[in-house]
Amino acid sequence: MKNKLTDLNDHLFAELERLSDEELQGEKLDEEIRRAEAVCGVSTQIIANGTLALRAEEFKDKAMSASATVPKFLEG
Q: Are the C-beta atoms of residues 46 and 8 closer than 8 Å to each other?
């Protein structure tokens, strides 16, 4: 699987379009709302994972920098 964040955007907008269907009513609407909640939950985790990966890379880059400083609690 080689999904990208642009694919996530496509899925989110597709779900928004399904929810915007004014002909969707009753049980079908309830089912779509449950689906939207699931998509939202998964999307939130994907974004959180991406944010964590980005922060880890930033930390790694900063730690490898020649101008990096040692935190005070680690000094002498």
A: yes
Q: How far apart are the first and last CA of the chain?
A: 48
% pLDDT > 70, the chain: 84
DSSP 20: T
Using left for φ > 0, alpha for ψ between -120 and 50, and beta otherwise, residue 75 falls in beta
| CA distances for 73 relative to 23, 55, 66, angstroms | 62, 21, 20
Burial tier of 49 (Cβ tally within 10 Å: 0-12, 13-18, 19+): exposed
* pLDDT tens sequence across 57-74: 888 877 766 666 666 775
Query: What backbone torsions phi and psi does residue 56 show, to the nearest 5 degrees?
Result: -65, -40
Q: Is the pTM of this model over 0.85?
A: no
Q: Which pair of tokens denotes residue 33? A: 């709302």
